[in-house]
Amino acid sequence: MDFTASLKLIHANFFFVDIVGLSDTSMSTKTQIKKIETLNKCISDCTSFKSVPLDSLLLLPTGDGCCIGFMQGPELPLLLAVELHIKLAAYNKGKIPSETVRVRIGLHSGNCFLVNDLLGQRNTWGPGIIYARRVMDFGDDGHILLSPSLAEDLRSLSDEYRGIIKPVHDVILKHGTTMLLYSAYGDGFGNSKHPDKGASVRSKYGEEVLRLQKTTLYPSIDLILTVLDVEKMVVQHKRTYEVVNVSNEPIKNVLHGIAMDVNIPDINDLNIEVYDEKHRECKITGINVDKPDCKEFTTEFNEPITKSDEGKKYTLQYEVEEPERYFENAFLIDCQKFNMSFKYPSGKDIKRPNLLEVNQETEESTPSAIEPIITQEGEIETIKWEIEDISKGKTFRIDW
Fold first, then answer.
1. Ramachandran region of residue 347, left (φ > 0), alpha (ψ -120 to 50) or beta?
2. Among 115, 153, 181, 186, who pairs with 168 as Cys (CB 3.0-4.6 Å)?
3. Which domains does the chain have, with CATH numbers?
4. What would the pLDDT profile of 95-144 be if each residue is shown by its tens digit?
5. Could you tell me the pTM of the whole model?
């Protein structure tokens, strides 16, 4: 029997929207109908919708919203979401809360089937639609949320999209699997607050340390701390790791942890960059902890690091305020060479730092015997320490 006769598999870019609060039992049916009609009218008036030929659209009403599949470019669902937010903001202006139309939107790129319904008319069903619905379900009022597949496609197209599409945090899907959620927001559209639903806030650092001890050597680590703003004490952290795989399994990704003395609500405020030895971006594939004082996220190598590879490196760079004016580095695995530099403008109320060795059990610190290398270039003074043969558990600290 030919099961594919009435099925056609296609790829589309999905826009899934519903009206927030429409199921409120205190709301009259008349009000519900008016809100649905208003939503439909606003969508149909959007240029990104009406400029697309009908035979390139998949339309699926859902009662309290709709799902639209675009068989053209991946930008269309996002453009429609932004347009719709602007139109609804204009409609809601001056209305009492019970009359406003507020929505949440989920965007995804994936597959679906074209099927014939009982009347022989074309209908749509499949994983692409289901996934777009799941993405939307994590949202609150005003959110435009994206799946990783669509978000990364759009972010790779332009710097403008990178500026408005931000990774949020991991969410838990069915059967315990996780997905990195993205949010689109900017002037007049989206919701910059992180959604709480499905958030997977759990540290994986313990597991990562055990994995590193079995699989990874760091022949060298270069750390450069640069004071960017003396008044706010904003410091750029730039860490470059040389990585050697000592196991038979390829290393595909790395987990990063950032602990802070200040509260940073959004991980995107740290201006994080991760790139390899060829200066290619290592994409963020998971954010499992995004607490104000602690961030944990995973990035993926462009090519897995195997046992035979040499010269493999990656760099983690970010900016954060350091009001306490100190830095500690604890080594979780052995390191053959650690170069630490501190760059700062001289004569700006910053004392020249000294290197201290810290006992993790007693927290007692003692001055290190390692002599620094001091250089001056214009107003910038650089203090550098070269440290060799560091065993796990060793901790170094500087105060300035």
1. left
2. 181
3. 8-184 (3.30.70.1230), 205-399 (2.60.40.1730)
4. 999 899 999 999 999 998 887 777 777 778 888 999 999 999 999 999 99
5. 0.84
